[in-house]
Design brief:
Layout: E1 6-7, H1 17-26, H2 45-62, E2 68-73, H3 76-88, E3 95-100, H4 103-112, E4 117-123, E5 146-150, E6 152-153, E7 158-159, E8 171-174, E9 191-195, E10 206-211, H5 228-233, H6 243-260, H7 263-282, E11 289-290, E12 301-305, H8 309-321, E13 324-325, E14 336-339, H9 346-363
Parallel strand pairs: 1-13, 3-4, 3-5, 5-8, 8-9
Antiparallel strand pairs: 2-10, 6-7, 9-10, 11-12, 12-14
Helix pairs in contact: 1-6, 2-6, 3-4, 7-9
């Protein structure tokens, strides 16, 4: 098949077509280099220029100040679930606080418990993670090691629309599934991290934005390959980084700046795309039932059920025939999940909304 489908995969996910085309053009040889990005040294000037641009672009997009380090790591958010408490909780004598709003927050809290006391201060598990707390609902201790949140839960489709204020306690955010989808008040965060394969490129790169003062808290017992301080000292090059992934990430940051016009514009586009799909859901007379409560709905992952599992299977099969692919929901929630990340074209969201309307009329 050479025709591109509308890919609603939760990740690895759709990438901008213009970026894929540039990667295709430059795959054999980077301009002026004579070798592929897959072949050049990570210590070469060509790659160091790519790394520098990737960081500079990200700093502009998120408004990252000089008091933060930007690290390009590997291992995905799953490694960060362990690495972050190793660096900030181990030997601290303090408690880490976790706001558990879905499956990924739950996994993060479990991993932290291996390094120290990790307290779940709020959990949405009782209602299968269909809502988020008001910040006033979350008990906090002034002397905590940190507070951890997940900005968007890919599986359940709930999302924080604004940046919480944790006061003087470092706020840690796993932004893996909504990274770069909107402007962020980065100064509210001690650490802001994300794996790339939702909004920022192929799998294999993890971006960590960390406030410099937190590097002083890293215990000497943390191995160098798991130490934020060591990576910061070596400019993300403790070992060979994912050169191709960082190159692709750099191209996506260019796309966000030059083609989209920045994160405020990206948010406008994302809201418009999500509205198309949610309007089809809400206008179905109850045929489609959203999982997330309306005030907590994600712009990135639209999760919903149909009248029966049999009808859901038919929905997925018929959608695939229309080149609307990867719509099956996660087994813990069931139903349908449409992931409409940054690179999903408006037309793709529109085609899904149109199909939802037609399917409802034929089966409702």
């Amino acid at each position: 098949m050479t025709e591109r489908v509308d890919n609603f995969s939760p990740g690895p996910a759709v990438m901008p077509l213009s970026v894929l085309e540039q990667i295709q053009r430059e795959m054999i040889s980077l301009p002026g280099v004579g070798s592929s990005i897959l072949e050049i040294s990570h210590r070469s000037k060509a790659f160091l220029d790519i790394l520098a641009e990737a960081e500079a672009n990200l700093r502009r997009l998120l408004g990252i100040g000089a008091n933060y380090k930007v690290l390009f790591l590997q291992g995905g958010s799953r490694l960060q679930f362990s690495m972050m408490p190793m660096n900030l909780l181990r030997d601290s004598g303090k408690t880490a606080e976790y706001v558990v709003s879905g499956s990924w927050g739950e996994k993060a809290a479990k991993e932290a418990a291996f390094e120290g006391e990790a307290r779940v201060t709020w959990s949405g598990k009782a209602t299968n993670y269909d809502r988020l707390p008001a910040w006033s609902e979350v008990p906090r201790e002034a002397n905590s090691a940190y507070v951890h949140i997940t900005s968007n839960e890919t599986i359940q489709g709930v999302q924080f629309a604004t940046d919480p204020d944790a006061g003087d306690v470092p706020l840690i955010c796993d932004a893996s599934s909504d990274f770069l989808h909107r402007p962020v008040d980065i100064d509210r965060y001690g650490i802001f991290y994300a794996c790339a394969q939702k909004n920022a490129g192929p799998s294999g790169v993890t971006i960590v934005v960390i406030r410099e003062d937190l590097l002083d808290r890293v215990p000497k017992s943390v191995p160098s390959m798991l130490s934020y301080a060591a990576y910061a000292k070596e400019n993300s090059m403790q070992n060979t980084p994912n050169t191709f992934g960082i190159y692709a990430f750099m191209l996506i940051t260019r796309w966000l700046e030059r083609d989209i016009g920045g994160l405020a514009k990206m948010l406008e586009v994302n809201r418009a795309k999500a509205k198309l799909v949610y309007d089809a859901l809400d206008g179905s007379g109850g045929f489609y039932r959203g999982h997330a409560q309306k005030d907590c709905r994600s712009l990135m992952n639209v999760t919903f059920r149909l009248p029966s599992e049999e009808v859901e299977k038919r929905f997925v099969a018929e959608a695939a025939k229309e080149n609307l692919c990867e719509l099956k929901g996660h087994r813990s929630v069931g139903g349908i999940r449409a992931s409409i990340y940054n690179a999903m074209p408006m037309d793709g969201a529109g085609r899904l909304a149109e199909f939802m309307g037609e399917f409802c009329r034929r089966n409702g």
